[in-house]
Design brief:
This protein is mainly alpha-helical. 50% of the residues lie in helices and 11% in strands. The protein contains 8 helices and 3 strands, in the order αααααβββααα. A 3-stranded antiparallel beta sheet has the order 2-1-3, sandwiched between helices. The chain binds manganese (II) ion (MN). Manganese (II) ion binds at residues 18, 22, 68, 154, 156, 158-159. Residues 18, 22, 68, 154, 156, 158-159 line the site of manganese (II) ion.
Length: 195
């Protein structure tokens, strides 16, 4: 989608710098970090699941590349709500959709410094909310919170500073207007079926 596709919630200039500079750098640096290694022929998910053995460059660049890919794909201006099945699962796990939203917002707000907020499906196939520092994610074997990522929010300052400055909470509120629930639901179905 175009850089201005998520206006006014995320401004075009932020999107342009975020995608064209930050994300591209993660991708280029990941390619360089795995050049000439067996990782070149591996799926990114498999690399991340064994990232503790692969060094900090792969952890940071690989996480940065993968997290941003998830993030762009779970954003859309034509946001509907979650599917009935996912909505019921959220209500069952968290008590209500609003309670889930509150927990996710808290995870995003209280992540000190840079990182990501997550909705993920844990190994017991139960929905969970948490956050990770820097470019870590819930696929990584070294992460204390593990599972299949379903929805993510970038809370690095570069994701919101131009428009929201220090007001991270306003950026988090705006996020709820641009969630691509179709994509979140697709990930949920895939994670449930264990593929
Ligand atoms: Mn970012």
């Amino acid at each position: 989608y175009a850089y201005d596709a998520l206006e006014p919630y995320i401004d075009a200039r932020t999107m342009e710098i975020h995608y064209d500079k930050h994300h591209r750098a993660y991708f280029t640096n990941l390619v360089n970090a795995i050049k000439g290694t067996p990782m070149e022929s591996m799926e990114i998910e498999e690399i991340l699941k064994t990232v503790s053995t692969r060094g900090d460059a792969v952890r940071n660049k690989g996480g940065g590349y993968y997290n941003h890919m998830l993030f762009w794909n779970n954003l859309s201006k034509s946001s509907q709500g979650p599917s009935e099945q996912l909505k019921m699962a959220l209500e069952k796990t968290f008590g209500s959709f609003d309670k889930f939203k509150e927990l996710f917002n808290n995870a995003a707000k209280t992540r000190f410094g840079s990182g990501w907020a997550w909705l993920y499906l844990n190994s017991e196939k139960v929905l969970a909310v948490s956050s990770t520092p820097n470019q870590d994610n819930t696929l990584m074997d070294l992460s204390p919170v593990k599972g299949t990522p379903l929805l993510t929010l970038d809370v690095w300052e570069h994701a919101y500073y131009l428009k929201y400055q220090n007001k991270r909470a306003e950026y988090i509120d705006a996020f709820w207007s641009i969630i691509n629930w179709e994509e979140v639901d697709r990930r949920y179905q895939t994670a449930l079926s264990g593929i």
